[in-house]
Amino acid sequence: MASSSSIPCPPRGIYVPAVAFFHPDETIDFDAIRAHLTRLAEGGVDGLVIQGSNGEAMHMLHDERQQVLRLARELTCGNMGKLQRVAHDPRIGRPFAAFAGKTDFFLHGLVGGSHGVIAATANLLPKAHAHMLRLYDEGRLKEAQELQTRFSRADWALVQLGIAGIKAALQKYYGYGGGRSRRPLSSAVDAKKLDGEVDAAVGGLVELENSL
């Protein structure tokens, strides 16, 4: 077994705890998962966290988890040269990295020395999250602060709706997924709950996402 000192840190950046999708009969919607993972990859994120709590792994059978993982692997770039460079990059340093765990304090985490973010809201806004990291790295702190204010409003609005709320937002703004979760979670979020204050907090960021 490899020692902990031989295991490299993951690259700095944006990691998305990807949500899973289900048909009305609660079977897995692989087409929606494929569309979602493809959109995230094209959005410039640095990695995907598959089968975490947002992915509802605890509500899946073992073979269902394997099917989702196989699908995710099919959609990776398969660039082993890149993997080799990352695994042996001398800039990575000691094998430990701390990540902010919510969009709500993404910028705060960067200022505090975090390695990036693992954020559920990045399911909806991958490019906007990557944009935040660029703003910070380029020293454009006023713009980063303004974006963080918008992020915090949107993250707070979405967290009130749970995992199904993220999926309902993906259906509303991007047209896939159906917004359903598997029991015992609430099966779906009423689309009307995404109107009003939620849309006011999220809609403008979706426009930013689509412009990047």
UniProtKB/TrEMBL annotation:
InterPro entries per record: Aldolase_TIM, DapA-like
Single annotated GO MF: 4-hydroxy-tetrahydrodipicolinate synthase activity
SMART domains: DHDPS
Pfam families the record matches: DHDPS
Name assigned to this protein: Aldolase
Organism: Trichoderma citrinoviride
